[in-house]
Amino acid sequence: MSTRMDPSALRWLIGAELSRYRRDVPMSLSELSAETGIGKPKLGHMETGRYQQFPDDIAKVLRTCGADQPTIERLTSLAGRSDAKTWWAPWANVVPDWFRTYVGLEGLADGAFVFESMVIPGLLQTEEYAQALTLGTGFVRPDHAERFVSFRQARARRLTDDEPLTLHAVIGEAALRLRVNGDATRRAQLRHLADLASLPHVTVQILRPEDGPHPATPLGKFVVLDFDRVRPIAYTELLDGAMYIQDPDGVRTYTMVADNLRQVALSPADSRALIRELADAA
Hints:
Layout: H1 7-24, H2 29-36, H3 40-48, H4 55-64, H5 69-79, H6 97-108, E1 111-116, H7 127-137, H8 145-156, E2 166-172, H9 173-177, H10 183-197, E3 202-207, E4 221-226, E5 233-237, E6 242-245, H11 248-264, H12 268-281
Parallel strand pairs: 1-2, 2-3
Antiparallel strand pairs: 1-4, 4-5, 5-6
């Protein structure tokens, strides 16, 4: 798991796992409380990640739910890391509340699949592109725009950390052609994207209209995050919020869509060639 720690996101992940195991049994919170001797309110807080979960309590819950010993050791070991400093704390005043959990989870993830239909994904943006996009959307106060761009750039360094994120991005061709602050900004963004796509841990594929319909057609963006010690989750954004998919069947659906996009989109090599061609023509 990444060294970019976020205690609240880590508690959220642990809580999601505890909830999954309880529901798989299945068992209500009241029944679990009776079996473990842990109060129902405390169990509820453990599952939401509102407060720190203690290793002994985690182990007791998992044993009651029938988890095996490796699972118990895996999750209790994570609980011991939940008092670290939040990496994005310097930008807390400009990061929307609904986005904070995602940023924390992204920092903890080992791998990510990202689909974006209309804009370059945040981790792959240049500073100029990010600034123009931030000002253009109007979702960030003008006096916070510079700080938010600084946060975006710090977030993007996740790809060049000592333990970088393994990223696979499928991007709609429309994103490559979107006019953001003029040709110079667009050209620099495309060249930056092509350079990142050449990194061994970054894969970029372009999805063209002529590639035909696909399951993600109604979606503007979604992400599947993979973790070393917990099961994957899916994430999709709403206009002013986000939805997290934790149910294994729901996550499996997004994973299947991601696999389909990999098959439909241009190959990584052809995608890099198209990006450079558009950069030269900009």
